[in-house]
Amino acid sequence: MSSTSTSPLILTPPPVPHTSGVEKALLTGVGVGLVALATVAFDADAQRAKICFWVALALISIGTLGWAWWKFGHQPAGVRQDNLWLRGSTGRGAIAWLTAVVLTGFYVVLYWFSSPDDQGNFGPLNQLVHALDPFSQALRHKPSDQWFLYGTFYTLAVLIMGGRALWKYRHSPYQRIRTASVMFFQLGFAFLLPGLLLAFQRPEYYFSYFWPLKYDYLFPGTVGYLLKDGGPGLGVFMVFWGAAISFIGTPILTYFYGKRWYCSWVCGCGGLAETAGDPYRHLSDKSRTAWRWEVRIIYTVLVLIVLLTALLWLAASGAVPALQPITDPLSRAYGFAIGSVFSGVIGVGFYPLLGSRVWCRFGCPMAAYLGLLQKHFSRFRITTNGAQCISCGNCSNVCEMGIDVKQYAQRGEPIIRAACVGCGLCSTACPRGVLNLENGPREGRYQASPLIHPDSLRILS
């Protein structure tokens, strides 16, 4: 009689993430640059601070791009999400928390402690602001201020981390073109063009931002300012451009291309999320509870800005005099709570903890507007082939909008979600080619793959 013995199951811990010597050296350069940049704010010598500022930016830029070239260029092309939850920087570890505190602190200081005094002192950011004076004079013909500092940092982050994304996703033509697009619109339309308008003594206008995201562009006060200071030609065009894109261009473009035409190709908020926020995309909460809060909050914000805009125009018309004393405080309250705290402090400061699309997913009224159009009127959808899905979960892991893509792929259901920004990373990360971005006829958008039994069809909201 023989006996059969079974060995106990031994669980081996996952391998510790390995960082090569070259990577450590390049990342050290980035770290030194960040420390040097922080010391500029406390340097009493203006000339030394200016030199240190530009040296710090050079170290950060060269170090980051060099690291991306070494990290992604010295291995076969493809999406790899290895060890993300094991790293302190991308797994909500100590480095992630430190990064979140620094980003949040910077936004708090920028918004509420950097207004200039009579001597042109910008508080804690004074030396950083004035280090950009020569550049600001060359571009805008005026000294730098806290918002020019912020725009410079923002644009530099999109360009540098965009270079990283180009290396990481170099095997995907769609990702390369999409990344180049957000880099182009941020640099050209959200940074250089507004500066050049100021140089010609015209209103600083951002042609790549529209109502309701850039909510004040259709407020009566802003419209009047643009018409007055922009002149009879340019001012009228600015007002026309903002209104036409918001109410005519957006529905038409979304009908053909979904919300991706804006959220993933043009918008500066989305551009920062897709570049600087790319290391954190896996952190987005995929639970049903998070989705319920998403729906409750984002559509509430959309309703608020629609009502506020209507109230402001009603008050400006004089039809309801009682509205005039309250509309201005209401607009300031919206600007503080939504325009500053939500979109800035939380929207970017919480990247390392909640993912890169916190603002886009939970608060952006433009995303809500585009999402309604996409879900109910657009030709865009992501088709799936459930017969080829191996349930690896790569698609869900890279979805920054909190969509559990794998559930759709397993059933062969097309993805028609209002939240989807069409970044295409789920398709790029799929090892079997299960997911495809399509702009087909509206008929059949909700039909599952014929390989899936009709009784299994279940559309998730």
UniProtKB/TrEMBL annotation:
GO terms for cellular component: plasma membrane. It comes from the Bacteria. The chain crosses the membrane at residues 51-70, 94-113, 147-167, 179-200, 233-256, 297-316, 336-354. PROSITE patterns: 4FE4S_FER_1, 4FE4S_FER_2. Residues 380-408, 412-440 form the 4Fe-4S ferredoxin-type domain. Keywords: 4Fe-4S, Electron transport, Iron, Iron-sulfur, Membrane, Metal-binding, Transmembrane, Transmembrane helix, Transport. One of its GO terms (molecular function) is 4 iron, 4 sulfur cluster binding. The keyword DNA-binding does not apply. The keyword Cytoplasm does not apply. Signal peptide: none annotated. This is 4Fe-4S binding protein. It comes from Hymenobacter telluris. The lineage of its organism: Bacteria, Pseudomonadati, Bacteroidota, Cytophagia, Cytophagales.
